[in-house]
Amino acid sequence: MSIRFDFVYWQIMFQFLQANYEIVYLSPDEREVWLQSTRERKAPIVRLVRTDMDWSVSLKNDMQRAMTAVDEWRRRQFRRQLQVVNIYVMMDPPVDDWELYVHRPLTTERVHMKTFVMHINNMYAVLHELNMLFHQSLKVYVPDDSPMLQHELQTFKQHVLSFAERMYENERSIFERGKARWTYVFIALQIVMFFILEWNGGSTNTRTLIEYGAKFNPLILQGEWWRFFTPIVLHIGFVHLFMNTFALYYLGPLVEKLYGSLRFLFIYLFAGFSGSLASFLFSPSVSAGASGAIFGCFGALLYFGKAHPHLFFRTIGMNVLTVIGINLAFGLVVPTIDNAGHIGGLIGGFLAASIVHLPKERARLGQWLAALFTAVVTAICLYIGFQRPLADQAQLILSLSKQYIDEREYGEAEQMLTLINEQDTQAYKADFLRAYIRIQQKDYDAAKQYLYAAVEKNDRFHEAFYYLALLYAEEKNYEKAKQAVERALRIYPDDEQYKQLLFEIEQLL
């Protein structure tokens, strides 16, 4: 007789599977199964148990055990609240009073469990309650007893389990739609570029980084648009390279397999561009690295979460959100991290994924709208960036120019100094460096012109007066030399070098 109700148990399981539920736990004896919805995260967990209990105390103990097990599972799944429908399928109910245990749901702070006991006398009444609860039509029948019933049961069980396996394989295939190719191309490229940087001045050398394409706002403003992309493969120091390579090695294949290689390439490059664009808008620093593109991979996973929310949270969702949160918080705490680039890459990756969408899935209208929105936002950001030259660049330009001058690369220094606007408060220092270059080139007349231009912009710039004094002394025009050094001393009277020069000029006079 119990085999007949085994059929009922497997029929109920099969109909939940057909209603977009999946098996999350099946006991070794296959007499207990947990099912969860693949469509609605807040839908209740179904616990289905095939059992025969003689006494109500067994029912009570099993319900308490189920509450504990479900609460542990809830914590592992990072679920705040959990609704559980607990269904016992049995031929006959316990012989004593069992109804009082199922009359009221078992409830804790986090778990709410409603229990049904289905037996031969109330089967259709319980089915009606379940249909009302789940808004679906569960239909079962109790087969007649026959010599072939055991064989038929085994056949049906195999059919149900095969159906569940196919559902699982279909779900898993979503994460295997492509092969990781471009991920390893970018890993190899950034490693090669790191050694090239190290060979040509060092990956932490600002001048070297700029020469090889790091994001440098003044040169972008001069029209070097490729600097939105080239920073993706450049890294500043070994630790920076190691961390980004490690992250790309583990994250890239997941995204590339999920979206396919061509979609991944578009997502990665657009996210890298978006990270550079955000850094261009909000950070004056020289920057490089694949961080924006890697955060774009996180953005693509967030878009996957939007398209398949339940699958996302059942698989990778909490891990992705946790890692994003940790990295953004770390970026806020550590001032040297370009958090603008990270956030820009995250948004760019989400938008790029919304444009290409997932393979074998159609959302044409959504994709066109996403493309239009992305184009408009990108155009606005570029317009703002190019119309509003960012501040705090002059000091960096002067520092780089001094590096070029120290290495006697005067042409590069001159080109760098042209990036400083004449109205900038630091423009007088640019004139001073130009004068220094002319002195090294023995063009003293031009040097004096630049020094006068410097003191015209800043009449408290005593170094310019000192160099004017040196130039006039070199021309044996001691009277003007004396006037210039006296002017320097009036501004900075404690400088011993200035005093010594004045003494020497007076001796010559």
From TrEMBL:
Positions of transmembrane segments: 182-199, 228-252, 264-282, 288-304, 311-334, 340-358, 365-386
Membrane topology reported for the UniProt record: Multi-pass membrane protein
Gene Ontology MF: a single term: serine-type endopeptidase activity
EC numbers: 3.4.21.105
GO BP of this protein: proteolysis
Gene Ontology CC: membrane
UniProt keywords, alphabetically: Hydrolase, Membrane, Protease, TPR repeat, Transmembrane, Transmembrane helix
Protein's UniProt keywords contain Phosphoprotein: no
Highest taxon above the source species: Bacteria
UniProt name for this protein: Rhomboid protease gluP
Organism of derivation: Anoxybacillus thermarum
Organism lineage: Bacteria, Bacillati, Bacillota, Bacilli, Bacillales
